[in-house]
Protein backbone atom coordinates (compact mmCIF):
# COMPACT_ATOMS: atom_id res chain seq x y z
CA UNK A 1 0.00 0.00 0.00
CA UNK A 2 2.85 2.40 0.82
CA UNK A 3 4.22 2.00 -2.68
CA UNK A 4 0.82 2.69 -4.24
CA UNK A 5 0.40 5.84 -2.12
CA UNK A 6 3.91 6.91 -3.11
CA UNK A 7 3.02 6.33 -6.77
CA UNK A 8 -0.13 8.43 -6.42
CA UNK A 9 1.92 11.24 -4.88
CA UNK A 10 4.31 11.04 -7.84
CA UNK A 11 1.33 11.37 -10.19
CA UNK A 12 0.09 14.45 -8.31
CA UNK A 13 3.54 15.99 -8.32
CA UNK A 14 4.35 15.30 -11.95
CA UNK A 15 1.69 17.50 -13.55
CA UNK A 16 1.05 21.19 -13.09
CA UNK A 17 -2.49 20.66 -11.81
CA UNK A 18 -1.69 20.55 -8.09
CA UNK A 19 0.51 23.62 -8.31
CA UNK A 20 -2.12 25.64 -10.13
CA UNK A 21 -4.79 24.57 -7.66
CA UNK A 22 -2.55 25.54 -4.74
CA UNK A 23 -2.05 29.00 -6.24
CA UNK A 24 -5.81 29.24 -6.77
CA UNK A 25 -6.41 28.32 -3.13
CA UNK A 26 -3.94 30.94 -1.92
CA UNK A 27 -5.54 33.61 -4.10
CA UNK A 28 -8.97 32.69 -2.75
CA UNK A 29 -7.67 32.88 0.81
CA UNK A 30 -6.50 36.44 0.20
CA UNK A 31 -9.88 37.34 -1.25
CA UNK A 32 -11.88 35.74 1.56
CA UNK A 33 -9.78 37.33 4.32
CA UNK A 34 -10.14 40.78 2.74
CA UNK A 35 -13.91 40.34 2.45
CA UNK A 36 -14.49 38.73 5.85
CA UNK A 37 -12.59 41.10 8.15
CA UNK A 38 -15.07 43.94 8.69
CA UNK A 39 -13.99 47.40 7.70
CA UNK A 40 -14.65 50.07 10.32
CA UNK A 41 -17.91 49.77 12.20
CA UNK A 42 -19.57 47.65 9.54
CA UNK A 43 -21.04 44.54 11.18
CA UNK A 44 -23.22 43.44 8.28
CA UNK A 45 -21.47 40.08 8.06
CA UNK A 46 -22.27 39.41 11.72
CA UNK A 47 -18.68 40.14 12.68
CA UNK A 48 -17.28 43.21 14.31
CA UNK A 49 -13.72 44.37 14.83
CA UNK A 50 -14.21 44.16 18.59
CA UNK A 51 -15.13 40.46 18.59
CA UNK A 52 -12.69 38.47 20.70
CA UNK A 53 -13.10 35.49 18.38
CA UNK A 54 -12.67 37.52 15.18
CA UNK A 55 -9.40 35.83 14.22
CA UNK A 56 -10.85 32.35 14.74
CA UNK A 57 -13.91 33.25 12.63
CA UNK A 58 -11.86 34.64 9.76
CA UNK A 59 -9.61 31.59 9.72
CA UNK A 60 -12.69 29.36 9.64
CA UNK A 61 -14.25 31.18 6.70
CA UNK A 62 -11.01 31.26 4.70
CA UNK A 63 -10.71 27.50 5.03
CA UNK A 64 -13.58 27.24 2.57
CA UNK A 65 -11.12 28.25 -0.17
CA UNK A 66 -8.80 25.39 0.61
CA UNK A 67 -11.49 22.77 1.03
CA UNK A 68 -13.11 23.50 -2.33
CA UNK A 69 -9.76 23.39 -4.12
CA UNK A 70 -8.67 20.18 -2.41
CA UNK A 71 -12.04 18.64 -3.30
CA UNK A 72 -11.44 19.54 -6.95
CA UNK A 73 -7.93 18.07 -6.79
CA UNK A 74 -9.35 14.84 -5.40
CA UNK A 75 -11.99 14.60 -8.12
CA UNK A 76 -9.50 15.38 -10.88
CA UNK A 77 -6.97 12.87 -9.57
CA UNK A 78 -9.39 10.15 -10.57
CA UNK A 79 -11.31 11.62 -13.53
CA UNK A 80 -8.08 12.53 -15.30
CA UNK A 81 -7.11 8.86 -15.25
CA UNK A 82 -10.24 8.12 -17.26
CA UNK A 83 -9.95 11.22 -19.39
CA UNK A 84 -6.38 10.49 -20.49
CA UNK A 85 -6.60 6.71 -20.40
CA UNK A 86 -3.98 6.23 -17.69
CA UNK A 87 -6.55 4.30 -15.63
CA UNK A 88 -5.71 1.22 -17.70
CA UNK A 89 -2.06 1.29 -16.63
CA UNK A 90 -3.02 2.11 -13.06
CA UNK A 91 -5.36 -0.87 -12.79
CA UNK A 92 -2.85 -3.15 -14.51
CA UNK A 93 -0.36 -2.42 -11.73
CA UNK A 94 -3.00 -2.87 -9.03
CA UNK A 95 -5.75 -5.17 -10.31
CA UNK A 96 -7.58 -4.87 -6.99
CA UNK A 97 -9.13 -1.49 -7.71
CA UNK A 98 -10.10 -0.89 -4.09
CA UNK A 99 -6.40 -0.61 -3.32
CA UNK A 100 -6.10 2.13 -5.94
CA UNK A 101 -9.06 3.94 -4.39
CA UNK A 102 -7.55 3.73 -0.90
CA UNK A 103 -4.08 4.73 -2.14
CA UNK A 104 -5.50 7.77 -3.93
CA UNK A 105 -7.54 8.71 -0.86
CA UNK A 106 -4.46 8.53 1.36
CA UNK A 107 -2.35 10.47 -1.16
CA UNK A 108 -5.04 13.16 -1.30
CA UNK A 109 -5.16 13.30 2.50
CA UNK A 110 -1.42 13.98 2.44
CA UNK A 111 -1.92 16.59 -0.28
CA UNK A 112 -4.74 18.11 1.78
CA UNK A 113 -2.42 18.43 4.78
CA UNK A 114 0.24 20.15 2.65
CA UNK A 115 -2.38 22.48 1.16
CA UNK A 116 -3.71 23.24 4.64
CA UNK A 117 -0.21 24.10 5.86
CA UNK A 118 0.19 26.62 3.05
CA UNK A 119 -3.30 28.11 3.10
CA UNK A 120 -3.59 28.31 6.90
CA UNK A 121 -0.19 29.97 7.22
CA UNK A 122 -1.17 32.60 4.67
CA UNK A 123 -4.61 32.85 6.22
CA UNK A 124 -3.26 33.51 9.73
CA UNK A 125 -0.55 35.95 8.75
CA UNK A 126 -2.83 37.91 6.46
CA UNK A 127 -5.73 37.94 8.96
CA UNK A 128 -3.53 39.28 11.75
CA UNK A 129 -2.14 41.97 9.44
CA UNK A 130 -5.53 43.06 8.12
CA UNK A 131 -7.29 42.96 11.51
CA UNK A 132 -4.51 45.08 12.98
CA UNK A 133 -4.56 47.43 10.03
CA UNK A 134 -8.30 47.93 10.35
CA UNK A 135 -7.99 48.53 14.08
CA UNK A 136 -9.47 45.27 15.34
CA UNK A 137 -8.56 43.00 18.22
CA UNK A 138 -6.27 40.06 17.51
CA UNK A 139 -6.91 37.47 20.21
CA UNK A 140 -5.02 34.20 20.35
CA UNK A 141 -7.62 31.97 21.98
CA UNK A 142 -8.30 28.32 22.59
CA UNK A 143 -11.10 28.70 20.10
CA UNK A 144 -8.62 29.67 17.41
CA UNK A 145 -6.71 26.46 18.09
CA UNK A 146 -9.96 24.46 17.78
CA UNK A 147 -10.80 26.12 14.45
CA UNK A 148 -7.27 25.53 13.15
CA UNK A 149 -7.47 21.86 14.08
CA UNK A 150 -10.89 21.63 12.40
CA UNK A 151 -9.52 23.36 9.29
CA UNK A 152 -6.70 20.83 9.00
CA UNK A 153 -9.17 17.95 9.45
CA UNK A 154 -11.51 19.36 6.79
CA UNK A 155 -8.67 19.80 4.30
CA UNK A 156 -7.48 16.23 4.91
CA UNK A 157 -11.01 14.85 4.42
CA UNK A 158 -12.12 16.76 1.33
CA UNK A 159 -9.44 15.30 -0.94
CA UNK A 160 -10.46 11.68 -0.23
CA UNK A 161 -14.14 12.65 -0.66
CA UNK A 162 -13.20 14.12 -4.05
CA UNK A 163 -11.42 10.88 -4.99
CA UNK A 164 -14.60 8.91 -4.31
CA UNK A 165 -16.71 11.39 -6.30
CA UNK A 166 -14.26 11.13 -9.19
CA UNK A 167 -14.47 7.34 -9.13
CA UNK A 168 -18.26 7.48 -9.21
CA UNK A 169 -18.69 10.25 -11.79
CA UNK A 170 -16.01 9.58 -14.37
CA UNK A 171 -16.84 12.66 -16.44
CA UNK A 172 -14.62 15.31 -14.98
CA UNK A 173 -16.56 18.39 -15.99
CA UNK A 174 -19.77 16.93 -14.58
CA UNK A 175 -18.03 15.81 -11.40
CA UNK A 176 -16.21 19.08 -10.65
CA UNK A 177 -19.05 21.38 -11.70
CA UNK A 178 -21.63 19.29 -9.89
CA UNK A 179 -19.64 19.17 -6.65
CA UNK A 180 -18.87 22.89 -6.66
CA UNK A 181 -22.43 23.96 -7.49
CA UNK A 182 -23.76 21.70 -4.77
CA UNK A 183 -21.29 22.86 -2.14
CA UNK A 184 -21.25 26.56 -2.91
CA UNK A 185 -24.74 27.28 -4.24
CA UNK A 186 -27.26 24.62 -3.25
CA UNK A 187 -25.93 24.17 0.25
CA UNK A 188 -25.63 27.90 0.77
CA UNK A 189 -29.38 28.20 0.23
CA UNK A 190 -30.18 25.14 2.29
CA UNK A 191 -28.23 26.29 5.34
CA UNK A 192 -29.85 29.70 5.19
CA UNK A 193 -33.40 28.76 4.22
CA UNK A 194 -33.83 25.26 5.61
CA UNK A 195 -31.26 24.98 8.39
CA UNK A 196 -32.95 21.86 9.79
CA UNK A 197 -31.91 20.03 6.63
CA UNK A 198 -28.91 22.12 5.62
CA UNK A 199 -26.96 21.50 8.81
CA UNK A 200 -26.93 17.77 8.08
CA UNK A 201 -25.64 18.18 4.53
CA UNK A 202 -21.89 17.82 3.80
CA UNK A 203 -21.30 21.56 3.47
CA UNK A 204 -23.46 22.33 6.49
CA UNK A 205 -21.62 19.78 8.57
CA UNK A 206 -18.30 21.28 7.44
CA UNK A 207 -19.47 24.74 8.42
CA UNK A 208 -20.48 23.30 11.77
CA UNK A 209 -17.06 21.71 12.24
CA UNK A 210 -15.39 25.03 11.46
CA UNK A 211 -17.97 26.91 13.54
CA UNK A 212 -18.54 29.44 10.81
CA UNK A 213 -22.13 29.64 11.94
CA UNK A 214 -21.80 31.70 15.06
CA UNK A 215 -20.56 34.60 13.08
CA UNK A 216 -22.72 34.42 10.02
CA UNK A 217 -26.41 34.80 9.27
CA UNK A 218 -26.80 31.11 10.04
CA UNK A 219 -26.23 31.87 13.72
CA UNK A 220 -27.27 28.92 15.83
CA UNK A 221 -28.41 26.88 12.86
CA UNK A 222 -25.34 24.68 12.60
CA UNK A 223 -24.32 21.50 14.37
CA UNK A 224 -21.73 21.71 17.14
CA UNK A 225 -18.18 21.12 15.91
CA UNK A 226 -17.88 17.55 17.14
CA UNK A 227 -21.19 16.54 15.56
CA UNK A 228 -20.34 18.30 12.30
CA UNK A 229 -17.05 16.42 12.25
CA UNK A 230 -18.75 13.08 12.78
CA UNK A 231 -21.36 13.76 10.10
CA UNK A 232 -18.64 14.74 7.62
CA UNK A 233 -16.67 11.60 8.43
CA UNK A 234 -19.87 9.63 7.88
CA UNK A 235 -20.33 11.17 4.42
CA UNK A 236 -16.73 10.40 3.51
CA UNK A 237 -17.17 6.79 4.59
CA UNK A 238 -20.47 6.31 2.77
CA UNK A 239 -19.27 7.79 -0.52
CA UNK A 240 -16.03 5.83 -0.25
CA UNK A 241 -17.94 2.59 0.20
CA UNK A 242 -20.28 3.50 -2.67
CA UNK A 243 -17.32 4.17 -4.94
CA UNK A 244 -15.66 0.87 -4.10
CA UNK A 245 -18.91 -1.09 -4.43
CA UNK A 246 -20.34 0.48 -7.58
CA UNK A 247 -17.83 2.43 -9.58
CA UNK A 248 -14.80 0.19 -9.51
CA UNK A 249 -16.51 -2.94 -10.73
CA UNK A 250 -17.29 -1.42 -14.11
CA UNK A 251 -15.57 -2.80 -17.17
CA UNK A 252 -12.76 -0.62 -18.36
CA UNK A 253 -13.15 -0.61 -22.12
CA UNK B 1 4.28 -19.15 -18.91
CA UNK B 2 1.25 -20.11 -20.90
CA UNK B 3 -1.85 -18.05 -21.52
CA UNK B 4 -4.94 -20.19 -21.35
CA UNK B 5 -8.35 -19.05 -22.58
CA UNK B 6 -11.24 -21.37 -21.75
CA UNK B 7 -14.75 -20.80 -22.99
CA UNK B 8 -14.14 -17.05 -22.74
CA UNK B 9 -17.36 -15.16 -23.45
CA UNK B 10 -18.39 -11.53 -23.18
CA UNK B 11 -21.78 -10.07 -23.87
CA UNK B 12 -22.49 -6.35 -23.90
CA UNK B 13 -26.25 -6.24 -23.61
CA UNK B 14 -27.51 -8.35 -26.47
CA UNK B 15 -24.32 -8.22 -28.55
CA UNK B 16 -21.87 -11.04 -28.13
CA UNK B 17 -18.39 -9.54 -28.38
CA UNK B 18 -16.49 -12.73 -27.60
CA UNK B 19 -18.13 -16.11 -28.01
CA UNK B 20 -16.84 -19.23 -26.24
CA UNK B 21 -13.20 -18.63 -27.10
CA UNK B 22 -10.70 -21.31 -26.11
CA UNK B 23 -7.03 -21.19 -26.93
CA UNK B 24 -3.60 -21.75 -25.51
CA UNK B 25 -0.69 -19.39 -26.13
CA UNK B 26 2.69 -20.82 -25.22
CA UNK B 27 6.13 -19.38 -24.49
CA UNK B 28 9.03 -19.01 -26.88
CA UNK B 29 6.99 -17.91 -29.82
CA UNK B 30 5.10 -14.98 -31.23
CA UNK B 31 1.41 -15.73 -31.43
CA UNK B 32 -0.61 -13.45 -33.66
CA UNK B 33 -4.19 -12.72 -32.73
CA UNK B 34 -5.71 -11.84 -36.05
CA UNK B 35 -9.13 -10.59 -36.97
CA UNK B 36 -10.88 -7.69 -38.63
CA UNK B 37 -11.80 -4.61 -36.61
CA UNK B 38 -14.59 -5.33 -34.19
CA UNK B 39 -13.92 -9.08 -34.13
CA UNK B 40 -13.47 -9.06 -30.34
CA UNK B 41 -9.68 -8.98 -30.07
CA UNK B 42 -9.45 -6.04 -27.72
CA UNK B 43 -12.25 -7.32 -25.50
CA UNK B 44 -10.50 -10.69 -25.27
CA UNK B 45 -7.22 -9.05 -24.26
CA UNK B 46 -8.99 -6.82 -21.74
CA UNK B 47 -10.61 -9.86 -20.17
CA UNK B 48 -7.22 -11.56 -20.01
CA UNK B 49 -5.86 -8.51 -18.17
CA UNK B 50 -8.70 -8.26 -15.68
CA UNK B 51 -9.97 -4.93 -17.04
CA UNK B 52 -13.23 -6.38 -18.35
CA UNK B 53 -15.14 -9.06 -16.46
CA UNK B 54 -15.98 -12.11 -18.61
CA UNK B 55 -19.64 -13.11 -18.87
CA UNK B 56 -18.47 -16.71 -18.83
CA UNK B 57 -15.24 -18.66 -19.04
CA UNK B 58 -11.77 -17.95 -17.74
CA UNK B 59 -8.53 -16.43 -18.93
CA UNK B 60 -5.43 -17.41 -17.02
CA UNK B 61 -1.70 -16.80 -17.15
CA UNK B 62 0.33 -19.66 -15.79
CA UNK B 63 -2.85 -20.99 -14.23
CA UNK B 64 -3.72 -17.76 -12.44
CA UNK B 65 -6.22 -15.08 -13.28
CA UNK B 66 -4.60 -11.67 -13.78
CA UNK B 67 -5.99 -10.32 -10.50
CA UNK B 68 -4.42 -13.26 -8.67
CA UNK B 69 -0.90 -12.44 -9.83
CA UNK B 70 1.25 -11.33 -6.92
CA UNK B 71 3.35 -8.89 -8.94
CA UNK B 72 1.50 -8.42 -12.22
CA UNK B 73 3.99 -6.04 -13.87
CA UNK B 74 6.84 -8.49 -13.37
CA UNK B 75 4.81 -11.27 -14.95
CA UNK B 76 2.73 -9.66 -17.67
CA UNK B 77 3.42 -6.58 -19.75
CA UNK B 78 0.57 -5.07 -21.68
CA UNK B 79 0.11 -2.45 -24.35
CA UNK B 80 -3.50 -1.60 -25.05
CA UNK B 81 -5.13 0.64 -27.61
CA UNK B 82 -6.83 2.88 -25.08
CA UNK B 83 -3.87 3.17 -22.74
CA UNK B 84 -2.90 6.78 -22.65
CA UNK B 85 -0.67 9.34 -21.06
CA UNK B 86 -1.26 12.59 -19.28
CA UNK B 87 -0.03 15.12 -21.86
CA UNK B 88 1.50 17.32 -19.17
CA UNK B 89 3.61 14.55 -17.68
CA UNK B 90 7.09 13.61 -18.84
CA UNK B 91 7.82 10.15 -20.17
CA UNK B 92 10.09 9.35 -17.26
CA UNK B 93 7.52 10.48 -14.67
CA UNK B 94 4.83 8.38 -16.34
CA UNK B 95 7.02 5.29 -16.03
CA UNK B 96 8.22 6.27 -12.56
CA UNK B 97 4.65 6.27 -11.23
CA UNK B 98 4.15 2.75 -12.55
CA UNK B 99 7.55 1.49 -11.40
CA UNK B 100 7.07 2.79 -7.87
CA UNK B 101 3.57 1.32 -7.66
CA UNK B 102 4.90 -2.04 -8.83
CA UNK B 103 7.98 -1.84 -6.56
CA UNK B 104 10.40 -2.20 -9.45
CA UNK B 105 14.07 -1.19 -9.21
CA UNK B 106 14.59 2.58 -9.44
CA UNK B 107 16.45 2.30 -12.74
CA UNK B 108 13.59 0.42 -14.44
CA UNK B 109 12.08 3.51 -16.16
CA UNK B 110 15.29 4.72 -17.76
CA UNK B 111 16.21 1.19 -18.82
CA UNK B 112 12.81 0.66 -20.45
CA UNK B 113 13.08 4.00 -22.28
CA UNK B 114 16.51 3.04 -23.61
CA UNK B 115 15.16 -0.32 -24.71
CA UNK B 116 12.47 1.25 -26.91
CA UNK B 117 14.76 3.94 -28.27
CA UNK B 118 13.46 6.86 -26.22
CA UNK B 119 16.53 7.30 -24.00
CA UNK B 120 16.92 10.93 -25.00
CA UNK B 121 13.20 11.71 -24.71
CA UNK B 122 12.79 11.13 -20.98
CA UNK B 123 12.37 14.78 -20.04
CA UNK B 124 9.99 16.37 -22.57
CA UNK B 125 6.29 16.21 -21.83
CA UNK B 126 4.26 13.58 -23.63
CA UNK B 127 2.27 16.33 -25.39
CA UNK B 128 5.36 16.89 -27.54
CA UNK B 129 5.46 13.23 -28.61
CA UNK B 130 4.48 11.94 -32.03
CA UNK B 131 2.08 9.04 -32.34
CA UNK B 132 4.98 6.69 -32.96
CA UNK B 133 6.82 7.92 -29.87
CA UNK B 134 3.69 7.41 -27.77
CA UNK B 135 3.50 3.88 -29.06
CA UNK B 136 7.09 3.31 -28.02
CA UNK B 137 6.39 4.82 -24.61
CA UNK B 138 3.43 2.45 -24.24
CA UNK B 139 5.73 -0.39 -25.10
CA UNK B 140 8.26 0.87 -22.54
CA UNK B 141 5.51 0.67 -19.92
CA UNK B 142 4.76 -2.88 -21.04
CA UNK B 143 8.34 -4.08 -20.63
CA UNK B 144 9.00 -2.06 -17.47
CA UNK B 145 8.91 -5.08 -15.17
CA UNK B 146 10.78 -7.36 -17.60
CA UNK B 147 7.74 -9.63 -17.78
CA UNK B 148 7.76 -13.11 -19.22
CA UNK B 149 4.43 -12.58 -20.95
CA UNK B 150 3.71 -9.71 -23.33
CA UNK B 151 0.21 -8.87 -24.47
CA UNK B 152 0.16 -6.23 -27.18
CA UNK B 153 -2.95 -4.83 -28.81
CA UNK B 154 -2.24 -3.53 -32.32
CA UNK B 155 1.28 -2.41 -31.38
CA UNK B 156 2.13 -1.41 -34.94
CA UNK B 157 -0.65 1.19 -35.17
CA UNK B 158 0.86 4.62 -35.54
CA UNK B 159 4.39 3.35 -36.01
CA UNK B 160 6.32 4.49 -39.06
CA UNK B 161 7.91 1.84 -41.32
CA UNK B 162 11.21 1.96 -39.41
CA UNK B 163 9.25 1.61 -36.20
CA UNK B 164 7.41 -1.43 -37.51
CA UNK B 165 10.64 -3.03 -38.59
CA UNK B 166 12.17 -2.33 -35.19
CA UNK B 167 9.08 -3.76 -33.47
CA UNK B 168 9.30 -6.96 -35.47
CA UNK B 169 12.91 -7.48 -34.51
CA UNK B 170 12.18 -6.62 -30.92
CA UNK B 171 9.27 -9.05 -30.56
CA UNK B 172 11.25 -11.78 -32.31
CA UNK B 173 14.07 -11.30 -29.83
CA UNK B 174 11.71 -11.46 -26.85
CA UNK B 175 10.15 -14.68 -28.13
CA UNK B 176 13.57 -16.18 -28.83
CA UNK B 177 14.44 -15.47 -25.21
CA UNK B 178 11.61 -17.74 -24.17
CA UNK B 179 8.92 -15.18 -23.50
CA UNK B 180 5.30 -15.52 -24.41
CA UNK B 181 4.40 -12.86 -26.97
CA UNK B 182 0.73 -12.43 -27.87
CA UNK B 183 0.11 -9.71 -30.46
CA UNK B 184 -3.20 -8.66 -31.93
CA UNK B 185 -3.50 -7.15 -35.37
CA UNK B 186 -6.03 -6.59 -38.09
CA UNK B 187 -3.33 -6.42 -40.74
CA UNK B 188 -1.78 -9.75 -41.57
CA UNK B 189 1.17 -8.23 -43.37
CA UNK B 190 2.32 -6.48 -40.19
CA UNK B 191 3.13 -9.67 -38.35
CA UNK B 192 3.26 -12.26 -41.08
CA UNK B 193 7.03 -12.15 -41.00
CA UNK B 194 7.42 -12.79 -37.30
CA UNK B 195 4.41 -14.76 -36.11
CA UNK B 196 4.96 -18.43 -35.40
CA UNK B 197 1.37 -19.18 -34.60
CA UNK B 198 -1.88 -17.61 -35.55
CA UNK B 199 -5.22 -17.37 -33.80
CA UNK B 200 -7.87 -16.03 -36.15
CA UNK B 201 -11.02 -14.56 -34.72
CA UNK B 202 -14.15 -13.34 -36.48
CA UNK B 203 -17.34 -12.07 -34.88
CA UNK B 204 -16.04 -13.10 -31.47
CA UNK B 205 -15.37 -16.69 -32.42
CA UNK B 206 -12.12 -18.50 -32.97
CA UNK B 207 -12.08 -19.56 -36.61
CA UNK B 208 -8.57 -20.95 -36.84
CA UNK B 209 -5.68 -21.78 -34.61
CA UNK B 210 -2.54 -23.12 -36.22
CA UNK B 211 1.09 -22.59 -36.98
CA UNK B 212 1.81 -19.98 -39.61
CA UNK B 213 3.81 -22.52 -41.63
CA UNK B 214 0.83 -24.88 -41.88
CA UNK B 215 -1.37 -22.01 -42.88
CA UNK B 216 1.12 -21.02 -45.57
CA UNK B 217 1.27 -24.56 -46.90
CA UNK B 218 -2.49 -24.66 -47.01
CA UNK B 219 -2.63 -21.33 -48.77
CA UNK B 220 -0.31 -22.70 -51.48
CA UNK B 221 2.14 -20.84 -53.62
CA UNK B 222 1.05 -17.98 -55.82
CA UNK B 223 3.12 -16.28 -58.45
CA UNK B 224 2.89 -12.66 -59.35
CA UNK B 225 4.17 -11.23 -62.60
CA UNK B 226 4.36 -7.98 -64.49
CA UNK B 227 4.31 -7.95 -68.24
CA UNK B 228 3.34 -5.57 -71.07
CA UNK B 229 1.43 -8.42 -72.71
CA UNK B 230 -0.85 -9.17 -69.85
CA UNK B 231 -3.88 -10.31 -71.86
CA UNK B 232 -1.92 -12.73 -74.04
CA UNK B 233 -0.10 -14.24 -71.05
CA UNK B 234 -3.32 -14.54 -69.12
CA UNK B 235 -5.01 -16.44 -71.92
CA UNK B 236 -2.02 -18.77 -72.21
CA UNK B 237 -1.93 -19.41 -68.47
CA UNK B 238 -5.63 -20.12 -68.29
CA UNK B 239 -5.36 -22.48 -71.23
CA UNK B 240 -2.58 -24.28 -69.33
CA UNK B 241 -4.87 -24.76 -66.34
CA UNK B 242 -3.65 -22.00 -63.99
CA UNK B 243 -6.26 -20.12 -62.03
CA UNK B 244 -6.03 -16.34 -62.00
CA UNK B 245 -6.19 -14.98 -58.45
CA UNK B 246 -5.71 -11.32 -59.09
CA UNK B 247 -5.30 -8.79 -61.88
CA UNK B 248 -4.27 -5.16 -61.68
CA UNK B 249 -3.21 -3.06 -64.69
CA UNK B 250 -0.09 -4.83 -65.88
CA UNK B 251 0.12 -7.23 -62.95
CA UNK B 252 -1.23 -10.73 -62.67
CA UNK B 253 -1.30 -13.25 -59.81
CA UNK B 254 -1.97 -16.91 -60.50
CA UNK B 255 -1.59 -20.10 -58.49
CA UNK B 256 1.51 -22.08 -59.36
CA UNK B 257 5.26 -21.81 -59.07
CA UNK B 258 7.31 -19.06 -60.73
CA UNK B 259 9.70 -21.50 -62.49
CA UNK B 260 6.95 -23.08 -64.57
CA UNK B 261 5.36 -19.77 -65.39
CA UNK B 262 8.65 -18.18 -66.36
CA UNK B 263 9.34 -21.03 -68.73
CA UNK B 264 5.90 -20.82 -70.24
CA UNK B 265 6.34 -17.10 -70.86
CA UNK B 266 9.77 -17.69 -72.41
CA UNK B 267 8.41 -20.40 -74.70
CA UNK B 268 5.95 -17.88 -76.10
CA UNK B 269 8.51 -15.07 -76.13
CA UNK B 270 6.57 -12.90 -73.73
CA UNK B 271 8.65 -10.32 -71.92
CA UNK B 272 8.36 -10.40 -68.13
CA UNK B 273 9.30 -7.26 -66.22
CA UNK B 274 8.90 -8.97 -62.90
CA UNK B 275 8.25 -12.47 -61.63
CA UNK B 276 7.82 -13.20 -57.94
CA UNK B 277 6.58 -15.83 -55.56
CA UNK B 278 3.90 -14.76 -53.12
CA UNK B 279 1.71 -16.48 -50.58
CA UNK B 280 -2.03 -16.85 -50.55
CA UNK B 281 -2.10 -16.15 -46.86
CA UNK B 282 -4.00 -12.89 -47.14
CA UNK B 283 -6.70 -14.76 -49.09
CA UNK B 284 -6.99 -17.37 -46.37
CA UNK B 285 -7.15 -14.68 -43.71
CA UNK B 286 -9.90 -12.82 -45.50
CA UNK B 287 -11.84 -15.97 -46.32
CA UNK B 288 -11.69 -17.25 -42.73
CA UNK B 289 -12.43 -14.02 -40.99
CA UNK B 290 -15.29 -13.08 -43.26
CA UNK B 291 -17.14 -15.76 -41.33
CA UNK B 292 -18.10 -17.95 -44.29
CA UNK B 293 -14.94 -19.97 -44.66
CA UNK B 294 -14.43 -22.04 -41.53
Walk me through this protein's architecture.
The complex is a heterodimer of chains A (253) and B (294). Chain A is mainly alpha-helical and 253 residues long. Chain A has one domain. In chain A, 75% of the residues lie in helices and 0% in strands. Chain A contains ten helices and no strands. Chain B is α/β, with parallel strands linked by helices and 294 residues long. Chain B contains eleven helices and 13 strands. In chain B, the strands form three sheets. Chain B has a six-stranded mixed beta sheet with strand order 5-6-7-3-8-9, sandwiched between helices. The longest helix of chain B is centred in the middle third of the chain and has 16 residues, at 161-176.
Write the layout of secondary structure elements.
The complex is a heterodimer of chains A (253) and B (294).
Chain A: H1 2-13, H2 17-36, H3 54-83, H4 87-93, H5 97-133, H6 142-168, H7 172-193, H8 195-198, H9 202-210, H10 225-245
Chain B: E1 3-12, E2 15-25, E3 29-34, H1 41-48, E4 56-61, H2 72-75, E5 76-79, H3 91-101, H4 108-115, H5 131-143, E6 149-153, H6 161-176, E7 180-185, H7 188-192, E8 197-202, E9 205-211, H8 212-219, E10 221-226, H9 230-239, E11 244-248, E12 251-255, H10 258-267, E13 274-279, H11 281-289
Helix pairs in contact in B: 3-4, 4-5
